[in-house]
Design goal:
The complex is a heterodimer.
Chain A lengths: L3 E4 L2 E4 L5 E7 L6 E7 L6 E7 L5 E2 L8 E7 L2 E6 L8 E8 L9 E3 L3 E5 L1
Parallel strand pairs in A: 2-11
Antiparallel strand pairs in A: 1-3, 3-8, 4-5, 4-9, 5-6, 7-8, 9-10, 9-11
Chain B lengths: L3 E2 L5 E4 L4 E7 L6 E7 L6 E6 L3 E5 L2 E6 L4 E6 L8 E8 L6 E3 L3 E6 L1
Parallel strand pairs in B: 2-11
Antiparallel strand pairs in B: 1-3, 3-8, 4-5, 4-9, 6-7, 7-8, 9-10, 9-11
Classes of the chains: A mainly beta, B mainly beta.
């Protein structure tokens, strides 16, 4: 149980294009999903918290107009990197919290999406 | 001061030994604590979580929590080369709130 998928696993795009990444909880409902970014040899950096049916909450320093998040259902959240530039190249990872997970809010991670902007 | 601190390592242990990974946190409102394992190029994988003072065992892994000292640890018994990875400690306040992650400790289990 508690499987989270991401698509695509790897994407290479030209500078200026937009890239959409999907995060799905496969066997549970997730009212809350989280989007992280990780640069090589660095730790996870939380970008935003995505709540089903409401606007995402962005961390300080993360541009909400550049990183568009939509959480339209209890099993799907999407992150769109708009007008991507080489400095946006990173490993993007989503996680989801089981709606029935109770008080301890453990998060289950997707496999990640490696974005390379040329 | 970082909210969750870990020694970056690398921590090297011989195969079969006990690996001890440590983590401290600054937010006394933290109620739940998590250990994740991350292999290079992969996403984190939940190993275990703990929320009560004391020890919690799961197979070769034991998590220890001391809220008075704001200290969490993970012991890995009979370490195997496949345990070589970065171990992330995370703390949460509960109620679906976000987790705060440490920077991770790199563990190397040597043959």
């Amino acid at each position: 149980g508690a499987v989270v998928s991401q698509h695509p696993s790897r994407v290479i795009c030209k500078s200026g294009t937009s890239v959409k990444i999907e995060c799905r909880s496969l066997d549970f409902q997730a009212t809350t999903m989280f989007w992280y970014r990780q640069f090589p040899k660095q730790s996870l950096m939380l970008m935003a918290t995505s709540n089903e049916g409401s606007k995402a909450t962005y961390e300080q320093g993360v541009e909400k107009d550049k990183f568009l998040i939509n959480h339209a259902s209890l099993t799907l959240s999407t992150l769109t990197v708009t007008s991507a530039h080489p400095e946006d190249s990173s490993f993007y990872i989503c996680s989801a919290r089981d709606r029935e997970g109770g008080h301890y809010n453990e998060q289950f991670f997707g496999p990640g999406t490696r974005l390379t902007v040329l | 001061q970082k909210e969750v601190e870990q020694n970056s390592g690398p921590l090297s242990v011989p195969e079969g030994a006990i690996a001890s990974l440590n983590c401290t946190y600054s937010d006394r409102g933290s109620q739940s604590f998590f250990w994740y394992r991350q292999y290079s190029g992969k996403s984190p994988e939940l190993i275990m979580f703990i929320y009560s003072n004391g020890d919690k065992e799961d197979g070769r892994f034991t998590a220890q929590l001391n809220k008075a000292s704001q200290y969490v640890s993970l012991l890995i018994r009979d370490s195997q080369p496949s345990d070589s990875a970065t171990y992330l400690c995370a703390a949460g306040r509960g109620g679906g709130n976000k987790l705060t992650f440490g920077t991770g400790t790199q563990l190397k289990v040597e043959l």
